[in-house]
Amino acid sequence: MRKILTYAEAHEIVSPMYDVLADCIQSSFAEHLSMCDLANQFGRPVSYENRTKANIIHDHLKSHVAEKFTNSKIFEVDKWNNIFGVKVKDDVFIRFNKINESRKISCRKTNQYINYMRQGEIQGFPASPTLLFAGYLPDENWTSIRGIYLLCPDNEDTLHWSYELDRRNSSEQLSVFERNEGRKRKVKLKLTDEEIYQTLNIKKSGTNDSV
Fold it and tell me: What's the confidence (pLDDT) of residue 209?
């Protein structure tokens, strides 16, 4: 049965990955910009559709993620039922997607997608890990990234929690969507790392250790 980790529980497991995941996404986005520039050197302008850009970024992401996480006893990098991602032991599974300003995933609404968003059972998928997204939000012109988030979905429309991985231009680090009498209350936290540890009652450890 799949266990849905709180942010505090997930943080203890995946915090060493934060910087590496953000770097993989930033590098893949930068490489897609270089490819777009290269395409325009053939003597005529080329305008890629946003879906094409997202596919280029995703293919580069697969290369970066495999390079960073493959040679480890903790991480497993592979495709499960044609979904690329990183499995951290039997605790967490992370896949990669573009997101919109509402932090919703840009993806075709297949049955597999719905089951993933609902933390449900998926054929050919590990049964126990919490299902997460590492999502990036491009600007309107796809020239830079506005935010990179780790997202824990509750269903197609809502999240359990989200955490901003790249906080250099951050206005919000952590959003927790708390259940209250059958309803969800969104709590936004703009805190320092020390305050996040205190708020979530997490003991600070070596979160920047290499993976």
Answer: 41
